[in-house]
Design goal:
By secondary structure, this protein is α/β, with parallel strands linked by helices. It has one domain: Spore Coat Polysaccharide Biosynthesis Protein SpsA, Chain A (Alpha-Beta Complex), CATH 3.90.550. It contains seven helices and eight strands. The strands form three sheets. It has a four-stranded mixed β-sheet, sandwiched between helices. It has a two-stranded antiparallel sheet with strand order 1-2. A hairpin with a 2-residue loop joins strand 1 and strand 2. The radius of gyration is 15 Å and the shape is globular. The mean pLDDT is 87.
């Protein structure tokens, strides 16, 4: 995108706030993870990364370290089209089998760790992975004994907006 995706306007609203709006339907509170000086102008609580600049795994670690609830919906700021049906499926999977985390898994086997439910008991393993130099979320999750998956169609119900072309596609439906 060439600049911070959190501030990219999607239908007149910063993308991070559109994601937060969608999460508000499922969560009693929503916070952003990152540099408070950068994100406080968006008007939401901001949790500082303990491993600043180390990628999404560091964001998950910060969120889980800050959280005071057991289950946490973690969503990347570039997924403004949260799918209620998918989130309901993730929540149902938690109620069926209390694992460590629940991730969407596509028909081709790929998983989406940046729109998933994480139990805060994952925090120590994720923190340890970061200290060991692991940065890929799926590599860190291999250390957890009970990762659960919810099958989703190959055509993603979770559009990522990574490029101007993705943004155009998303906003034009």
């Amino acid at each position: 995108m060439g600049h911070d995706k959190a501030f990219v306007q999607v239908n007149g609203r910063p993308m991070a706030l559109r994601v937060a709006d969608g999460m508000g339907e499922f969560c009693r509170s929503v916070a952003l993870v990152g540099d408070p000086n950068t994100y406080l102008p968006l008007g939401l609580p901001v949790v500082a990364d303990s491993f600043a600049g180390e990628g999404p795994l560091a964001g998950i670690e910060a969120a889980l370290g800050f959280s005071d609830v057991d289950w946490n919906l973690i969503v990347a700021c570039d997924m403004p089209g949260l799918n209620k049906e998918l989130i309901d499926q993730l929540v149902a999977a938690v109620h069926e089998d209390d694992g460590d985390c629940v991730l969407p898994q596509y028909e081709d086997g790929k998983v989406e760790p940046l729109c998933a439910l994480y139990h805060r008991r994952c925090h120590p393993a994720i923190l340890e992975a970061l200290k060991e130099g692991v940065r890929k979320v799926t590599d860190a999750l291999q250390k957890l004994p009970a990762v659960r998956y919810v099958r989703v169609p190959l055509r993603s119900p979770l559009p990522n907006v990574n490029t101007p072309e993705d943004l155009l596609k998303y906003t034009n439906g």
